[in-house]
Predict the structure of Plant basic secretory protein.
Amino acid sequence: MHVAVAPANDWILPQFDFHVEDLGHPGAKLFFSQINPYDALRRAVEASWKWLYGWDGRVGKNKVPRAVQSVKRITLTLRSTMDGVAHTFGSGEGEKQVHFALKHIVNSHQGDTAEKKNTRVREEILGVLVHEIVHCYQYNGKGKAPGGLIEGIADCVRLHDKLPPPHWKRVAPKGKHVPDPERPNDPGEWKWDWNWDAGYERTAYFFDWIDSTWQTWPESSRNTLQNTTSRSPPVTSAAGSAPPPSATSMPELPLPYGWIKQEHESGHPFYVDTRANPPRSIWTHPCEDEQYLKANPSPSPSGPSPPIGKGLFFRALNARLEESDWESEADLFLELTNWPREALWEAYCADYAPPQ
Ligand SMILES: [Zn+2]
């Protein structure tokens, strides 16, 4: 006789409880036709472990993260009287409650064939559950991180887990020209929309971009996770490093702090160091410019190279939100990637804003 052996991580999974307010609700019927509640919750929990902690549930391989140990029970309630989509809250030591609106399930049942409708509703339920379960496991800068950052992390996990809703698009806000009153014929200065932490898909795609491209930046512009206190300006070494990726194949390297990219009337881009007095303009990216490199020598590598892979930035960000209070003045992005948040956002917008 064979005895079934439970997978190794079963003991650390939280207990799942499940309530349905109205079994006759069309949303409840759709839920049961498409979803196995245990499998869906387990998948969401494991996605959270994977992307927030890089932990695959195998005990002994690496230590069980503290946040994973602390969640003892997750109760999912499908609610008939609730508007909106879903929300999550703590309801005691180690207890989490996820409330999910049945109306939203009904509204997601869309598509031109029965099969497409069912796929859509299934993926929507799984995606919303991933988002909500991330809230059960993520750190939040001791309660002080902005809501947009928290929501962006939850939706980026949803994105990494390949469950984005079809209406999500990787589009950055495009910014606008702000005319200079003294030079009325000039197109004026280009101003980006700096609202990176609006949350949800906007923040999620920004994080996804950092996470996916970070490893393609030159070694010296990446910080090591062991060396997160470095405040040295981001620099790259011209000798031996790959040329900056071309705009068509990969996003361009973020600009060092204080630099902006503009377009010459000939169509060629040029770069301006706005912190120099007078501002200095050059044709090449500052990371290829001798004068810039001379003034900002590459720091000698310290510590071992970071492990490289998708999800690494994300894990570092979550870990950083565990350790300390969120301070709006401090730049976690600079600390983790060696690029100031503004420079990252600007590079991202330059690549993904819709054409003007
Ligand atoms: Zn949320």
About this structure: The mean pLDDT is 80.
